[in-house]
Amino acid sequence: MKTTLTFLLTLSILAAPAWAITVTTPTNNAQVTSPFTLSATAAVCSSKAVVSMGYSLDTSSNTTVVYAQSVQAAVVAATGTHTLHVKAWGAGTSCDTDVAITVVPATVATPTFSPAAGVYTSVQSVTLSDATPGATIYYTTNGTSPSTSSTAYSGAFAVGATEVIEAIAVVPGDTNSGLARADYTITLPPPGPVVPPNAIAASSVQVLDTWIYNHDAGTPGTATGTTSLVSTPSLSGNAREYASSYTDEGGEIYSVVYANDTTSMNFVYDGWVWIAAGSSIANLEMDSNQVLANGDTVIYAFQCSGYSQTWEYSGAGAAWVASSQPCNPSTWTTNVWHHVQISYSRDNSGNVTYQSVWLDGVGQAFNATVPSAFALGWQVGVVQTQFQIDGLGASGSSTVYLDNLTISRW
User: Residue 48 and residue 343: Cα distance in Å, rounded?
Assistant: First the structure.
């Protein structure tokens, strides 16, 4: 019994390896893409301490050697099956192990879109990109699947309407990427008012030096004001500043005559408004007035009212009519320019139709017709615009700027 035990111990000792190369990656019979990562270690070779390691692919020639007990390398290999030889050397000894691998084509990364798919209210500049170096992106915008015959991406492009973009990325020798898709919904603001080519445009009305101002007796309390041209803030370099002080919700009227015309029947008011921070404004009024050949004055009165919190227009007896379209000057962002466009027209009897208003490109329709001709005794032919600021509360002040004011008529 003792003899048998001794024999088994002897066999166990003889069977123990005198060296060990551990290959962490790739594993035997693994499928890899090129380049693949080789990670291996060895401490002992034939009972000798390992002083260097190396590797070769398929043959023992062109062995890459590192003088360490581990090797980390990115190995380039052609598509197909290979034998990876991993080696270790000690003093006068060498050891090796083989790993079978299959190199398969790499799959190209799927393209990405910027900005991301979604709903937008403006034209978008769309950029395609791919994480795989050297990839060529092909895309379509007509709902068909992209291929290498589709448009090759060369730079950002504009998407100005609802569109589906599909794309793939290609690298020769690799597997094409997966399909990328982005759905863009573009809802552009309604266009501003249409001004025909035959219209007469009074441009830069704010720079006229004949502006006058006074308290509006139709408002309570008191108001005083001054006006001047300033370069800051401005869009054109010549904005008109309106600085007002008031008590008990008083309003200050700023007005200027800019034309003589008894025949025009259509008007478009187009200007940019800046409300300075700290201003207290109940109503912001932007009017035009025209004296017809019969002496009647047609009032085109339009305001953003903080009282009704709507756009209001002049109705019968010059009373304000609240529309269903919201507006409140207290909610306008201060210290930025706001674009205001108003379209209105009249008939031969002096009935005014308030058609639409656009605030910062967002259109609101009215299509409201009201009688608005009055015998005020004004000079025949005068065409005038008024910019009125009504105070909010018991007392306060406001500073408002108007720039690039163009009033077109035909």
Answer: 96
